[in-house]
């Protein structure tokens, strides 16, 4: 069960998508355009070994030989790409394709065209006409490792002829046009989507991860969980890439968590304000054109970090009890205290949403879904994909208030068909550390473990001027430590101001992107990278470094030396988030954050190169576990004043997991039948 498996090498999967076929005039203007929705594309070869894109639809089956083509792949992540054939004035515009499958499809097309030596151009039109070879269509087999390596060895780029097709006389690629940009081999995590998983050994899914993926693809409402570092977020990204982007909405409980998976808050998706209004009002709000369109479009709703939902604000009710929603019930929400790493707005909206999500029968979010979609199935037939670890950070509650988790509501059982647990830890590879973390997750800490963690106090985690990030329990400490250290540096301060698509919505972007509006850096600033820039080189989200200088010129980009040994100029990156009503907002900023200190709440979900922590002021169950489990190994960890009393797990959550495992064992057979 726990051994990573090689993906079976099967056929190139058909690509489910929409296709617009554009016939162009000789001047390049569109002469005729037809769109086919809900079709599948299959790659094959005909009797002349030409590559054929075959379109199978409910009413039509069409074949398009592709010879002298150019690939436009800039919008692959949005499930869009174009195969442009200038010689026959034809554009095949693909849309609404699962990004992962689209990536495999395009890469296979490009690679096979070059590497398998197409014969088109050799067989002329007359020969084709007179040919007695029977017509045939043979599906193209997936890329082999050898083919892949051949492409890879070519400096990470496809040969030029492939970028432009290889028919003699093909027009050269304009350097201004970037249509070949994406033909570059993948460097970072998102570009994982650009290749067959079977070709990337280090990221071959485990059996457990594959099972979850398959179950999700079979359309069931799924909750998947697992301890820190079992690859939940990685899997979630792959799930997102395997679903059609137009109908998949990626959300998380807080803006910070949403950022990690490239999504938005659940609140922003729902478009029903804070959710305090009556059901009728909520339905009205959701009936606004853009919001309703979003609800109607949605087929898959993904919610990450589901554990951070505050159940105190929805009462556990019996099926017959009338849920207390509406203006009169908002007092709990008004009294809410925001937690570390989230804005009050985030938290309130989240609670309201999940309050609604978890209420039985008349639950608003669910009811809104049914009303707007005109479908009486739960959530109007939307597939729910929920992910999180209830033994990590819990919902924030007021002192003395009873904590109710989302899973304690009757709605949870009704909505979630299948719960699955990932058990193989991938963040750490040191078994001793893994054992300690697993035990701490369950709220247990033996004397040996205490000794081991205490011994890390003397660890030298600093290297090459890069200091360990201090993980703090309280946000005030984070701000104080970072500011104090920055002030102590004597060099000139350089300010990098974010450029937002809508400055009026900067607050929204503050909570939904991991970077700040105003970043002040000096030589010697300890920084953390907030985006994967180059996974191969170790420039990943969470990588630690120090500013060693600034480039000359207007932009004056910082030069950062990272712990992985790489020194790089860090330039602007762009974050795009989908706000309420499906409107896109974007921020351009350097992907850096001050990293002398970081809050434990904000570190949830991250992998850190080196971390230092004092856990004496831990105030939450699971908080110590979250902090400790960010480190990759014991060497990269320094725990100051370790006291085992900081290790706590909530008894209700422990019971939930105990029951989950029993049910899971019982369900195994039926789960197999879903696959
Ligand atoms: N199948 C896999 N093969 C190789 N590496 C993997 C695999 N799955 C996950 N990883 C790596 O393990 C690390 C942890 O993964 P990830 O952050 O997705 O875990 P998580 O379960 O979301 O953790 P957390 O609960 O802390 O958020 C990442 O560096 C990820 O790339
Ligand atoms: Mg995660």
TrEMBL record:
Start-end of DNA-binding region: 623-642
Cited InterPro entries: AAA+_ATPase, DNA_helicase_pif1-like_DEAD, P-loop_NTPase, Pif1-like_2B_dom, PIF1/LRR1_PH, PIF1_helicase, PIF1_RRM3_pfh1
Cofactor: Mg(2+)
Localisation: Nucleus; Mitochondrion
Gene expressing this chain: Pif1-L1
Positions bound to ATP: 226-233
Record bears the keyword Phosphoprotein: no
Protein family membership: Belongs to the helicase family. PIF1 subfamily.
Name of the featured protein: ATP-dependent DNA helicase PIF1
HAMAP family (UniProt xref): PIF1
SMART domains on file: AAA
Record keywords, A-Z: ATP-binding, DNA damage, DNA recombination, DNA repair, DNA-binding, Helicase, Hydrolase, Isomerase, Mitochondrion, Nucleotide-binding, Nucleus
GO cellular component: mitochondrion; nucleus
Gene Ontology terms, MF aspect: 5'-3' DNA helicase activity; ATP binding; DNA binding; hydrolase activity
Quaternary structure (record): Monomer.
Domain AAA+ ATPase, chain residue ranges per copy: 218-437
Gene3D superfamilies reported in the protein's UniProt record: P-loop containing nucleotide triphosphate hydrolases
Protein role: DNA-dependent ATPase and 5'-3' DNA helicase required for the maintenance of both mitochondrial and nuclear genome stability.
Taxonomic lineage: Eukaryota, Metazoa, Ecdysozoa, Arthropoda, Crustacea
Gene Ontology terms: biological process: DNA recombination; DNA repair; telomere maintenance
Reaction catalyzed: ATP + H2O = ADP + phosphate + H(+)
Matches recorded under Pfam families: PH_LRR1 (PF25344), PIF1 (PF05970), Pif1_2B_dom (PF21530)
UniProt-listed Enzyme Commission number(s): 5.6.2.3
Disordered as annotated region, ranges: 155-180
Enzyme class: isomerase
């Amino acid at each position: 069960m726990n051994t990573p498996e090689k993906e079976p090498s099967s056929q190139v999967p058909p690509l489910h998508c929409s296709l617009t076929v554009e016939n162009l005039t000789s001047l390049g203007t569109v002469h005729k355009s037809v769109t086919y929705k809900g079709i599948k594309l299959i790659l094959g070869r005909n009797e002349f070994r030409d590559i054929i894109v075959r379109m199978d639809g409910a009413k039509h089956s069409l074949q398009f030989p592709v010879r002298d083509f150019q690939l436009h792949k800039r919008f692959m992540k949005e499930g869009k790409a174009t195969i442009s054939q200038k010689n026959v004035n034809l554009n095949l515009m693909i849309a609404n394709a699962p990004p992962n499958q689209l990536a495999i499809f395009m890469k296979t097309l490009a690679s096979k065209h070059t590497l398998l030596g197409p014969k088109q151009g050799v067989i002329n039109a007359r020969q084709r006409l007179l040919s007695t070879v029977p017509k045939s269509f043979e599906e193209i087999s997936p890329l082999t490792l050898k083919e892949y390596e051949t492409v890879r060895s070519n400096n990470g780029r496809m040969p030029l002829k492939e970028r432009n097709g290889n028919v003699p006389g093909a027009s050269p690629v304009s350097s201004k046009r970037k249509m070949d940009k994406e033909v570059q081999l993948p460097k970072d995590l998102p570009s994982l989507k650009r290749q067959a998983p079977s070709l990337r050994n280090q990221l071959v899914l485990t059996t457990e991860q594959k099972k979850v993926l398959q179950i999700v693809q079979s359309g069931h409402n799924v909750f998947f969980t697992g301890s820190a570092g079992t690859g939940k977020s990685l899997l979630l990204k792959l799930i997102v890439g395997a679903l059609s982007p137009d109908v998949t909405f990626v959300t998380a409980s807080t803006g910070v968590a949403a950022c990690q998976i490239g999504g938005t808050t659940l609140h922003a998706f729902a478009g029903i304000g804070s959710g305090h209004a009556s059901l009728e009002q909520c339905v009205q709000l959701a009936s606004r054109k853009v919001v309703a369109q979003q609800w109607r479009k949605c087929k898959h709703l993904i919610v990450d970090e589901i554990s951070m939902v505050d159940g105190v604000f929805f009462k556990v009710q019996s099926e017959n009890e009338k849920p207390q929603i509406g203006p009169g019930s908002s007092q709990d929400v008004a009294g809410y205290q925001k937690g570390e790493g989230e804005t009050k707005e985030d938290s309130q909206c989240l609670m309201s949403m999940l309050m609604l999500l978890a209420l039985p029968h008349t639950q608003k979010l669910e009811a809104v879904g049914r009303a707007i979609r005109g479908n009486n199935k739960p959530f109007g037939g939307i597939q729910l994909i929920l992910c999180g670890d209830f033994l990590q950070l819990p919902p924030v509650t007021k002192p003395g208030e009873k904590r109710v988790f989302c899973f304690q509501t009757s709605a949870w059982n009704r909505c979630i068909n299948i719960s699955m647990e990932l058990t193989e830890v991938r963040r750490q590879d040191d078994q001793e550390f893994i054992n300690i973390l697993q035990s701490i997750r369950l709220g247990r800490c033996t004397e040996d473990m205490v000794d081991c963690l205490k011994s890390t106090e003397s660890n030298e985690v600093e290297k090459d001027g890069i200091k360990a990030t201090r993980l703090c329990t309280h946000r005030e400490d984070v701000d104080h430590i970072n500011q104090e250290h920055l002030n102590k540096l004597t060099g000139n301060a350089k300010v990098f101001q974010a450029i937002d698509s809508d400055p009026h919505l900067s607050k929204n972007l503050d909570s939904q992107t991991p970077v700040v509006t105003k970043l002040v850096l000096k030589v010697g600033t300890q920084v953390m990278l907030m985006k994967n820039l180059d996974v191969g080189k170790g420039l990943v989200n969470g990588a630690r470094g120090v500013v060693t200088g600034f480039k000359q010129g207007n932009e004056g980009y910082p030069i950062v030396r990272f712990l992985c040994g790489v020194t790089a100029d860090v330039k602007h990156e762009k974050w795009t988030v989908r706000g309420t009503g499906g409107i896109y907002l974007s921020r351009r900023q350097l992907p850096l954050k001050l990293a002398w200190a970081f809050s434990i709440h904000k570190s949830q979900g991250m992998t850190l190169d080196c971390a230092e922590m004092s856990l004496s002021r831990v105030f939450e169950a699971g908080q110590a576990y979250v902090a400790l489990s960010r480190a990759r190994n014991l060497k990269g960890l320094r725990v100051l004043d370790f006291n085992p009393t900081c290790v706590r797990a909530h008894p209700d959550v422990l019971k939930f997991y105990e029951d989950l495992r029993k049910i899971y064992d019982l369900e195994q057979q039926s789960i197999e039948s879903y696959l």
